[in-house]
């Protein structure tokens, strides 16, 4: 049996590790950059550009453009440059003073450039695409687990005159260095296999238009001072635009984009972990791995999305049941849904994976719909502690809307499959 060369080993296994690490680092950087007082700002454009919505939208647009550029004109060397530049931008606050307001945009641009580099070697590589998607989505959904290992530094945009209140790097420099060596090294030896004209403009359009549309909806109808009626209107429009743009894509690409929409909707309730119950984190990992294993051998995207709908709907139930759903059912559903949808185009992997933090109507805006939250300027959603975790659930209307969004995604996937079968 012929022994594989180091380059072949890197191409076979390195892209999986690179994709996973790149997805985790990028998603963590975006989530960590959140400004603590963004809901207090009402200064025109500034009130938007310091929000999690702006960070997610900026990251999504830059990642889309980066992926398109790499697969249109790029080679492994350029992807390695992307990784190095992205990491340098993320680490910049560790070397020069950067205010919290500026770091939101700066960090999003760095994270998305890094993500584009990690996505570069994943073309037609199912395992690597699964790793990238799960790295981004799982980190976004379970970001609360980071509190077990680090004390988050507060990030304030509102400061005294002359006080810029510099913030640290969202990701420790030593982690960025190790991640950059991995991502850049794998990209350098990767064979893209991508022809110069092999860029789907429909995917680029979706990857740019959706984040901009979501940001406009957030500013117009879905900000932290919105009413329930306006919020529901924003959700309906956001879902309609996503479905319309996804419908124009090939079946498999559309399916993952809609799966990303469903994953974003399930973030309607958030979870954090108690330091006394760190075993719950390995339990999440085990459930995630089980979902991937099942989806790898027998793809069942509809079942995965169905479990996501059950998880979202559990927000209406007792705290114990909601906790069980988000600790055990959600990771199982996430792994199953993502693994069942792959492989797809690289642009679809990038755009679908970032939807959970690109569309913040569920994860951010919904938590401010309670009247007390709007009066005091921060979320007062009930924090229900049960055993190993604490689950934050907004008002029932938002839970129903999130569940309905997942059902719409499931129905659209079915209709797209039926239509494709009829046409062919």
TrEMBL record:
Membrane-spanning intervals of the chain: 12-31, 51-70, 77-96, 102-120, 127-149, 169-191, 203-223, 229-249, 256-273, 279-296, 303-321, 327-346, 353-369, 389-410
Keyword Membrane among UniProt keywords = yes
Query: Flavoprotein among the record's keywords?
Result: no
Entry keyword set: Membrane, Transmembrane, Transmembrane helix
- Indicate what this protein is called per its UniProt record: Uncharacterized protein
């Amino acid at each position: 049996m012929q022994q594989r060369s180091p380059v072949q080993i890197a191409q076979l296994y390195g892209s999986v590790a690179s994709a996973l690490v790149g997805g985790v680092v990028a998603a963590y950087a975006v989530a960590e950059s959140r400004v603590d007082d963004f809901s207090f700002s009402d200064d025109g454009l500034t009130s938007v550009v310091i929000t999690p919505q702006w960070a997610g939208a900026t990251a999504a647009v830059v990642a889309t453009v980066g992926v398109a550029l790499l697969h249109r004109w790029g080679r492994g060397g350029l992807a390695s440059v992307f990784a190095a530049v992205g990491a340098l931008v993320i680490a910049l606050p560790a070397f020069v003073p950067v205010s919290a307001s500026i770091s939101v945009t700066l960090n999003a641009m760095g994270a998305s450039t890094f993500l584009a580099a990690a996505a570069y070697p994943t073309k037609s590589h199912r395992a690597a695409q699964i790793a990238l998607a799960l790295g981004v989505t799982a980190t976004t959904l379970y970001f609360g687990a980071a509190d077990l290992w680090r004390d988050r530094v507060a990030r304030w945009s509102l400061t005294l005159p002359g006080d810029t209140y510099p913030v640290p790097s969202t990701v420790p420099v030593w982690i960025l260095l190790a991640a950059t060596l991995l991502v850049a090294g794998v990209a350098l030896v990767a064979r893209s296999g991508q022809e110069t004209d092999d860029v789907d403009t429909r995917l680029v359009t979706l990857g740019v238009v959706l984040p901009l549309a979501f940001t406009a909806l957030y500013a117009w109808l879905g900000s932290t001072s919105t009413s329930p009626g306006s919020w529901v209107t924003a959700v309906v429009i956001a879902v309609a635009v996503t479905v319309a743009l996804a419908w124009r894509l090939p079946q498999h690409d559309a399916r993952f984009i809609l799966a990303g929409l469903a994953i974003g909707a399930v973030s309607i309730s958030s979870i954090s972990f108690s330091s006394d119950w760190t075993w719950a984190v390995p339990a999440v990992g085990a459930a995630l791995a089980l979902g991937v294993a099942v989806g790898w051998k027998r793809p069942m995207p509809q079942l995965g999305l169905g479990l996501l709908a059950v998880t979202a709907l559990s927000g209406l139930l007792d705290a114990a049941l909601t906790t069980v759903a988000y600790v055990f059912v959600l990771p199982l559903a996430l792994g199953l849904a993502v693994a069942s949808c792959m492989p797809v185009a690289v642009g679809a992997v990038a755009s679908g994976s970032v939807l959970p933090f690109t569309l913040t109507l569920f994860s951010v805006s919904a938590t401010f719909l309670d009247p007390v939250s709007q009066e005091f300027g921060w979320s007062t959603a009930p924090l229900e502690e049960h055993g190993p975790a604490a689950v934050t659930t907004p008002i029932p209307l938002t839970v129903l809307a999130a569940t309905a969004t997942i059902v719409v995604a499931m129905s659209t996937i079915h209709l797209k499959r039926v239509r494709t079968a009829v046409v062919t």
